[in-house]
Specification:
Distance between the termini: 57 Å
Strand order of the largest sheet: 4-5-3-6-7
Low-confidence stretches: 1-30
Number of helices: 16
Radius of gyration: 24 Å
Strand content: 15-25%
Structural class: alpha/beta
């Protein structure tokens, strides 16, 4: 079971919850629910009611409409009765019995702490994460005087509780809604509706040289197709078929102060449908490559102030000291993921040869990234001009060893 322990004022979890329940096996496309997830105070209940009205769907608040009738007592009383440890267990067991379809459901802030229950929820709909700034949440909770939060009590600050819970939210969402400072519930609903429309649009990428009439036909490619293909056959570059993603100034502001990996996650997931590349898979890739084992700087690409409004961005902290490391450490992870998916679908263990023509930096960056992350199905051949690269660049390329790398 999941245990919340208070140890010297710190939060710690022991995740030993048995996953032995019978789940709903109905695909989410059939149940078609919309689940709103987020921290306590993120506005799930208010947004849920407004969203249900907008979409003409029934609304359910798990706390008020399901758990309290199910337990015949208030959530606050159940928390007092069971304690934090028992509450998560009982809440999860209750959620495993929850069933509805084509509804807007506002989850509790602690539902994601019970992974088996969340697996059940994810099988029956789309999980939308309301990503609200932690400082805003703390202020809201102070105003609301909430007394029914798991872990709440002496020695456990709200900031520690929210920070610890974030990992569970990150592990269970399909779509993230970045909520801006002072954004109204109505504005957040607008964002959710837009995100839902994008989920229903035809997914795919087309060449920049495609004609309008070709975009709905065979010219449309999946994300993994274009990763394996590279450039389009007509010489164009692949772009999203519908619209190029964009973020508002308020959403960009929310990235200030986040780590490089958290910033990368929030930017890149705008470009992928969650069925093509689930947020959790993207997160694992980002955390694997953008780390101090690869980049000799904890912030990956630091920005330094020169004077006035002038700043300098350092992009030379990667394994080959090239700015191209920033992209070419992650790209091989995409390639490996795409190759594995095609292998599963086709049943064929295809082999890939990547040809690289370089005048210096690209060769070393490609060799380092693909050798580490692209898997056994990928080989590289790097071509460089004999007198067109520096001695350091040549040494970087020719010193790389491995059965899948060739430098000419």
């Amino acid at each position: 079971m999941a245990r919340l322990l208070s140890i010297k004022g710190k939060l710690a979890w022991s995740r030993t919850l048995p996953c032995s329940y019978a789940f709903c096996t109905t695909p989410c496309t059939a149940c078609n629910n919309i689940f709103l997830m987020g921290s306590p105070g993120s506005g799930k209940t208010t947004v849920g009611r407004l969203l249900s009205s907008r979409l003409s769907l029934p609304a359910t608040d798990i706390d008020d409409d399901y758990l309290e009738p199910h337990w015949h007592m208030t959530v606050a009383d159940k928390l007092k009765q069971a304690g934090s440890e028992g509450f998560v267990q009982e809440e999860g067991e209750a959620l495993l019995q929850f069933a509805t379809s084509t509804s807007v459901v506002s989850l509790t802030g602690s539902n994601p702490l019970h992974q088996c229950a969340m697996d059940h929820i994810k099988d029956t709909g789309l999980v939308v994460l309301l990503d609200v700034d932690q400082r805003d949440i703390i202020q809201r909770l102070k105003r609301m005087k909430v007394n029914r939060i798991v872990g709440q009590g002496p020695g456990n600050s709200m900031q520690d509780i929210l920070k610890y819970r974030q990992q569970f939210y990150e592990n269970n969402y399909d779509v993230r809604i970045i909520c801006e400072e002072n954004e109204t519930p109505e504005q957040i609903v607008d964002k959710v509706v837009l995100a839902l429309k994008k989920q229903k649009q035809k997914r795919g990428y087309v060449s920049t040289r495609s004609h309008q009439g070709q975009m709905n036909g065979s010219k449309r490619k999946s994300f993994n197709d274009i990763i394996l293909e590279g450039m389009a056959n007509d010489g164009g570059l692949y772009v999203p078929m519908e619209t190029v993603p964009k973020m508002s100034s308020g959403e960009w502001s929310r990235l200030i102060g986040l780590s490089f990996t958290d910033q990368a996650q929030r930017i890149l997931e705008h470009w992928f449908h969650h069925h093509d590349l689930p947020p959790q898979s993207l997160q694992n890739m980002i955390n694997t490559v953008y780390c101090q084992e690869n980049f000799n700087c904890s912030t990956i690409s630091p920005v330094y102030h020169l004077h006035g409004n002038q700043y300098i961005l350092e992009l030379f902290h990667g394994p080959t000291a090239s700015f191209k490391d920033v992209a070419l450490q992650l790209m091989p992870m995409f390639f490996h993921n795409a190759a594995e998916e095609r292998k599963v679908k086709s049943g064929l263990d295809n082999r890939y040869l990547i040809l690289v023509a370089t005048s210096g930096d690209t060769g070393g960056a490609v060799l380092d990234g693909f050798k580490k992350y692209a898997g056994h199905s990928c080989s590289l051949m790097v071509l460089y001009p004999e007198k067109g690269v520096s001695a350091v660049q040549k040494a970087q390329m020719t010193s790389v060893t491995g059965d899948n790398t060739h430098v000419v």
